[in-house]
Amino acid sequence: MALDHHGLNSLGLPKPPAETRVVVAMSGGVDSSVVAAMLKEEGYDVVGVTLQLYDHGAALARKGACCAGQDIHDARRVAEAMGFPHYVLDYENMFREAVIDEFADAYLAGATPVPCIRCNERVKFKDLLATARDLDADCMATGHYIQRKMGANGPELHSAADPNRDQSYFLFSTTPEQLAYLRFPLGHLASKAETRALAAKYGLSVADKPDSQDICFVPNGDYASVIEKLRPGAADPGEIVDMDGNVLGSHRGVIHYTIGQRRGLGIGGLEDPLYVVKLDPATRRVVVGPKEALSTRTVPVREINWLGDGDFDAAAERPVHVRIRSTRPPRPAVIRPLSATTAEVELLDPEEGVSPGQACVFYDPDGSRILGGGWIWRGN
Q1: Phi-psi category of 217—alpha, beta or left, where left has phi over 0 and alpha has psi -120 to 50?
Q2: Quick one: which of 101, 211, 285, 358 has the most CB atoms within 10 Å?
Q3: What is the mean pLDDT of the chain?
Q4: Is 360 considered catalytic here?
């Protein structure tokens, strides 16, 4: 059945699929390929778009990165097999300015950046979305594992049905305007196995393609070598000091360390284990301290994107669950808005390794709704 009893198609739009144009953001992976094939089979007017985000030459002929040469080829093959047009857009300069440069600067400032969020925010959901509108598309669909549900006040963002695949941490900065235009057809699936089964059903060449693991422009997770290329001098050696400034040893470059790191510090003979608690690129110092020094209860957050009902700063405080690392489950917290885009988040139980440059994402304590989020910073 093409339309439901409200006269809406499966994407929630009031016209038959054949008259509905959908731009599908295709990374060349199995998820976005399944989305494109599924919508094509349902009779939609599908247009595939793949972004070329960088081209570091031969280094990118590797497996497991998105939007490199092999992936563009894979996306094109799916489009040919399913019979819909496919375009490749060169966003290389934009990607460097909007994502890579900030990644390098944040990393050198001792932060732990999450470039995938900035890419979604500044490239995919901004420029690509504008391109979709230029192509007269009624909406844009992606292979992200997240759900869009209609609420009393318009579309809401909800966690994916499969908690193991949920990508809400990377999509908190999606604005209400973008959410009105975006669709996420895989968010309700119970597992990745279902996606692969669909890929096999449609006979897609990428059905068994492995998931991408690394940040796309950081081959094999080797941050240091990428930063070294982008910011020469960042690998200069310096001192390892304790919290009182006493020199305990030397290091081979601030870029080789992360907050919370314990192994590989090269300081022996101490009774209690020491952890990296601060990186100071200006003085080329790595500051170490006891585990307790990593515990944080109060987290300053800025650049908040609010997806809840009403104005963010309308309430003096809001009980929520927050996620401060993509790999950790949401924890109970209280948000105290300081303005429409800044707040102080108090964690009910202290967390270790809260790092500037990470995102802090807000969840409804009583359900699956994502209420927004912001960026952790050092505070005043």
Answers
A1: alpha
A2: 358
A3: 89
A4: no
For the chain, the straight-line distance linking the first and the last C-alpha, in angstroms and rounded, comes to 57
Distances (CA, A) of 345 to 200, 311, 321, 337, 356: 45, 17, 10, 8, 13
Q: How far is CA 289 from CA 112, 271, 295, in A?
A: 19, 12, 11
119 is catalytic: yes
Task: Quote the distance between the C-alpha of residue 230 and its chain's center.
Answer: 22
Q: Report which residue type is found at 282.
A: A
Specify whether the CB–CB gap between 87 and 333 falls below 8 A: no
pTM (two decimals)? 0.88
User: Which listed residue (67, 116, 139, 216) is catalytic?
Assistant: 216
> In whole angstroms, what is the distance from residue 67 CA to residue 74 CA?
10
The pLDDT tens digits for 160-172 are 999 999 999 999 9
pLDDT of residue 58: 40
Residue-wise pLDDT tens digits, 203-235? 998 988 888 767 888 877 788 888 888 887 778
Distance CA 143, CA 36 (A): 9
Report pLDDT digits (tens) over 80-95: 999 999 999 988 888 8
- Among residues 66, 67, 116, 119, which one is catalytic? 119
Q: What mean pLDDT do residues 63-79 have? A: 76
What is the Rg, in whole angstroms, of the alpha carbon atoms belonging to the chain? 22
Beta bridge partners of 141: 24, 183
Residue 188, CA distances (Å) to 9, 64, 108 in order:
17, 25, 38
The pLDDT value given to residue 372 = 98
